[in-house]
Amino acid sequence: MPEQSYYLGVDIGTTSTKAVLFNKAGEIKDSHTVFYPLHTPNQLTAEQDPEEIFRAVLTAVRETLRKSDISKESLKLLSFSSAMHSLIAVDAQGELLTNSITWADTRSSKHAKHIKENLNGHDIYLRTGTPIHAMSPLSKLLWLQDEKPEICQATAKFISIKSYIFHKFFGEYVEDHSIASATGLFNLEQLDWDQGALDVSCVTAEKLPRLVPTTEQFTGVAPEFAAFMGISEDVPFVIGASDGVLANLGVNAIDPGVIAVTIGTSGAIRTVSPVPKTDPKERTFCYVLTENHWVIGGPVNNGGIILRWLRDEFASSEVETAKRLGIDTYDVLTRIAANVKPGADGLLFHPYLTGERAPLWDANARGSFFGLSIHHQKQHMIRAVLEGIVFNLYTVLLAVEELTGEPARIQASGGFARSELWRQLLADVFDKPVIIPESFESSCLGAVVLGMYATGEIEDFSIVSEMIGSTHTHHPETEASNIYRELLPIYIRLSRLLKEEYESISDFQRKHMN
């Protein structure tokens, strides 16, 4: 009997790297996750150690394969998903000059504003599809030149975390079209670095990685790393794409009219178009999956990271309860929230603890509770936090609908999808059925499907419908949806009315920041 083939998807995320081993039917053979910190010494900085992440990639692959006990020969490929918007400076010897400056870093917010207002930011957005915001490497490059000119002078290459890892493996700096399309430096029509954006950034194309399609294959991984991971040196590495676009593929949301909702550390609303589209109001992004698949949507900073904040700062007793019961703390929090009526008795929460991207694109945005009264208790605040995260995603959906029309269906994924309350919240707030695939590992599965396509094992992406496993659907509950229809206009108006106050309070915070 011939040996079964296996395919490894590796997702390099903001808080962890996960490797998931699939067979051709999409069944998970094994997986392993390695966590690492996000360094936030102040409210503006969010960096990571590239070497720590590289070691996490090596360990995640090694441990997954070790636990699976498959032969080297049965592993057909590794394919990579990665978080977007990271920026790393390296010198001519490949030595790190900076940490990985992540999407959550907002030190360049004033430079983003300068690009928008004075450097033809609108035209750059229309060509590149990346909203002008502190998340983007374009804004980060201007910040580096202003604040750390000595680093810019010593830099040989500005790269992403995935480019750093592939250089470690293969000795060349490369960037896939998908990650490149999230930099603010990549021309969507030309599939090349955008000269206008380069002029603004004062960086030449020679200081950026070589651009390659998301299907590009590499073989001949450095022998010491192959030995450590337990793989053959000639197994293909497919460079893959960004985590967001691969999540669409991994939940079978690749046909026009299908919306994918993802909530992990951050969150996003995305749909696929056969051609690139940008928004005259600059609320949405447009990123590459392949030359025939363009992912349009909006990312939010504030997804699961807000729930982690809630746990760490307000739920010490719930953490202890969870430990005694041997269950996850988040399960305790969602059970508490489930006992509160939809709408949290009129308590609203804007989850802008790390500024916000879509649809506000305002790094100065700040979180707040609104409607708090004497009868509200901690359980109402927990419920309001969960609802606020989903309310915010709904406002992104409204922007996407203006470009692509009302969705035919909604597919949901991410760590939140394990929670029945979160899933029902999505259905009730969006007032539409929400479909949840059996597999929660959407970015890794998307990477594997893209890898199979790249290596010629499949002719198109239709196989993913057979690989995602059984699905279940949550339908909106009329009473809850009606309550949310009343609250959502208030929620949306507040975020608009507070724009000037967001800037004022963030200026105060920066002025008095320790």
Automatic annotation (TrEMBL):
Residues 260-454 form the Carbohydrate kinase FGGY C-terminal domain. Residues 6-250 form the Carbohydrate kinase FGGY N-terminal domain. The keyword Transferase applies. One of its GO terms (molecular function) is gluconokinase activity. It comes from the Bacteria. Signal peptide: none annotated. The keyword Kinase applies. GO terms for biological process: D-gluconate metabolic process. Keywords: Kinase, Transferase. InterPro entries: ATPase_NBD, Carb_kinase_FGGY, Carb_kinase_FGGY_CS, FGGY_C, FGGY_Carb_Kinase, FGGY_N, Gluconate_kinase. PANTHER family: GLUCONOKINASE, SUGAR KINASE. This is Gluconate kinase (FGGY family). It comes from Planococcus citreus. The lineage of its organism: Bacteria, Bacillati, Bacillota, Bacilli, Bacillales.
